[in-house]
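Below is how a single chain appears once it has passed through the pipeline. First comes the sequence as given, then the structure the pipeline wrote out for it. We keep one example in the README because the format questions we get most often are answered faster by looking than by reading.
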Amino acid sequence: MRLRLVYLAAAVAAAVAVAAILLYRGGEAPVGEAVVVGEEVLLPLPRVKTEMRVEEALLHRKSIREWRDEPLDVEDLALLLWAAQGVTEHAGWDWYRRTAPSAGATYPLEVYVVIGEKGVRSGSGYLEAGVYRYNPFRHSLTLVRRGDARRELWEASWRQDWVRDAPVSIVICAVYERTTSRYGERGVRYVILEAGHVGQNIYLMATALNLGTVAIGAFDDAAVARAISARAGEAPLYVYPVGVPRELYRGSFDEVRRLIEGLRRG
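Resulting structure:
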């Protein structure tokens, strides 16, 4: 009897997983919620969520290092990752245009996410704490290692407390060979420039979502790679802790105008 119940439970779980995959492929994933299938997290599909104009996001953008003790919403995380490297268009053959420009469409960057315990809310629960790799083609996360790796990432980032305290950190890695194989040594510059494009996208999307982030380049490269279980050939370039700001910063175009007028007067 007990064995039959085990088989029945397994069959139900499998049916739910298959239904979730079919539902997601049909574009009908629950709005604002993730669908977890094995070690893959199918993220909520991108949509217009914010009401902030580009000009306002640029005005309000600021590096934030202090967070409230609150989780991120999974849809907000999904939009941050889509802003970083998400696909926007099938441009022919196997070329899928992304949100950030890339030299020769070589797309050398890989995006990892370090999620803390109860760091990302989805529906009535939370995503499992761990390190994940973002798949832009499926708009999903693949579990790389289980467990809260924030302290390890904090140590690797020379103990910058905003890394330890943020519910989530996005780590940008580079595979230089994808670009240098086409452009030679000049490709190194292109890869670094591309990381900057991605970083600004993260900043602006975080600002529009009323979240905060800060670009971190001061860390031990090898230690960060170990903390996120990066694959061979992936070099960490940036760490972006993300959280709900303790104080929400808002600029003023009136202040900007006064500032520029004052500068013009010398």
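The longest strand covers residues 235-243.

See the next section for the split statistics.
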